[in-house]
Amino acid sequence: MPPRSHATGRQVRLGAELRRLREAAGLKAREVAGLLNSTSAQISQMELGFAGVSEERVRRLAAHYACTEEALIDALVAMATDRTRGWWEEYRGVLPPVFQDTAEVEHHATFLREVVITHVPGLLQTADYARALYAYVHPGLPESELTPRVEHRMKRRTVIAGDHATPYETLIHECALRVRVAGRSVSRAQLQQILDQIEQGQAKVRVIPFDQDGFGGAGISMMYAGGPVPQLDTGLRDAPTGVAFIDADAQLKQLRTLFLRMQDASLAPTESRDFIHRLLKEL
Fold first, then answer.
1. Which of 84, 169, 202, 236 could staple 223 via S-S, CB 3.0–4.6 A?
2. 279 near 191, Cβ under 8 Å?
């Protein structure tokens, strides 16, 4: 089977996890190739996400790597055999790959936690808010590119809605709630949208107020997506070139610690809801 022309974020993650298991076992790619009657190039393609891997091969690799964590092995098998073509696939070739990869991570997450300082989180944004934000950040963006971005953002919201919604908790700084990316009416609609999503149980929202003492996290925005097993958790952080996907254990631990620290600086959910109500009345 020829290599894929492109690998999704999920396929890249699967390959990275297989590489980690191989390296933990102290084996070289050529040694694994010999065990599987394959080639080093094919092992490399597999570990980069450009070559598919069957359930049988994942389990053989796990055995050669002396991995006995059944839950992890089953999760890797599910990643290898998953043929889901989610709604985000219709935007492939229309929007940059990071849009599809983000939606895919959210779709497969067992829980989502997010921290946002300067803007309302994407999963809570109204279409008008998202449009104003994209138009400002990318001035001159043609309608043929602006509209798909807004549509994609609105479809992402389905992950926290419905009977099979993913549990979602977000920490929002007061700054994000007060900044007007468009006019007063857009801001009012945006705050009401957040309150509606809280009422519907789609989001647990905690507000970090301006007057919180000892808060040094103003430069931190992130999302943490829980995996089927902790080893497959994923962190997403803004980077100069776009969203950076994080899967290293030490960095994931740091993100978990940061979230808990910032959670301690936030108001309780009921206090946060009342806080947003007050902001809405002020507009």
1. 236
2. yes
What sign has the CA pseudo-torsion 176, 180, 181, 187?
positive
Contact by Cβ (8 Å): 232, 75: yes
Query: Cβ of 188: how many Cβ atoms within 10 Å?
Result: 15
Task: Report residue 18 as tokens.
Answer: 């297989």
What's the burial of 136, exposed, middle or buried (CB within 10 Å: 0-12/13-18/19+)? Answer: exposed
* 243 contacts 98 by C-beta, under 8 angstroms: yes
At which residue do the structure tokens 């902001």 appear? 279
Torsions phi, psi for 207 (to 5 deg)? -100, 135
What does the pLDDT look like over 65-118, one tens digit per residue? Answer: 999 999 999 999 999 998 888 999 999 999 999 999 999 999 999 999 999 999
81 CB contacts (<8 Å, ≥6 apart)? 54, 55
Helix, strand counts (H, E) of the chain: 12, 6
- Rounded CA-CA distance 100/261 in Å is 30
Instruction: Indicate the DSSP class of residue 95.
Output: B
Report pLDDT digits (tens) over 15-65: 999 999 999 999 999 999 998 888 999 999 999 999 989 999 999 999 999
